[in-house]
Amino acid sequence: MRSLVTGASSGIGAAFARALRRRGDELILVARRADRLEALARELGGPAVVAIVAADLTKPGAVEEIAKRVEAQGLLVDTLVNNAGVGHTGRFLEAPPERILGMLDLNNRAAVAMTRRFVPGMVARKRGTLINVVSTAAFQPVPYLAVYAASKAFLLSFTEGLATELIGSGVRVQALCPGLTATEFQEVAGTNRVPFNRTAAMTPEAVVAASLAGLDRGALRVVPGFLNRATIAAQRFLPQALVRRLGAKLFEPGH
Predict the structure, then answer these.
(1) Which CATH number do you get for residue 199?
(2) Which domain holds residue 128?
(3) Model pTM score
(4) What sign for the dihedral angle of Cα 77, 3, 85, 223?
(5) 197-213 pLDDT tens trace
(6) Using an 8 Å Cβ cutoff, are 143 and 92 in contact?
(7) What is the pLDDT of residues 65-96, one digit of tens each?
(8) Whose CA is closest to 84, among 158, 184, 164?
(9) What is the pLDDT of residue 235?
(10) Count of H helices and E strands in the chain?
(11) Cα Dmax for the chain
């Protein structure tokens, strides 16, 4: 079995790489930072079992270039983990337009394009796995994290809709929805400077363990952590205006 993981150079992506390798999978690791990919590949067994592709998924043509490099090595993808993603905390009208559009390119366009490129081969072989890394932000609008939350709502809807289309195909589908996780994402997105960062964080390893356990039991939607699941459940019974105000207090910059 061979797994392709995007955003594999750190955080949840690197944790997926290590966990899938322990399960015996050979790997294709994709990320922008070639030096980190090379170090991780050496750790996990070297070129005999780990191929690396340094690529920026926000660039036009990146997905097709990745596919060509994979095919040129005669590799088949049995599991696709669309983990690459980015966030931005702040007021929407103050965010640089290129940062907003880059977020949508990576969180949505790239994930959809990777899925469209690699899942048809799984269907043809009548076996495979797709894991899209979503977020608990997908379950409600989040002021000051508005575009990121909306991008994850899109990804959740896309993943669950596709899962129904693929029933009977032999391809398993999962929407992994982690909450706050101790990764570099917080610093890049700026969530390390808002009250949300003071809530309990899971480790990337715990998130991945929950994902793979959910995969083994056939769960489509996996929300790691009891507190995350309880929070999502509670939101169903609260007025949505209150949910939005609470989100604003957690993510408003300068607090």
Answers:
(1) 3.40.50.720
(2) 2-251
(3) 0.92
(4) positive
(5) 667 789 999 999 999 99
(6) no
(7) 999 999 999 999 999 999 999 988 899 999 99
(8) 184
(9) 87
(10) 10, 7
(11) 54
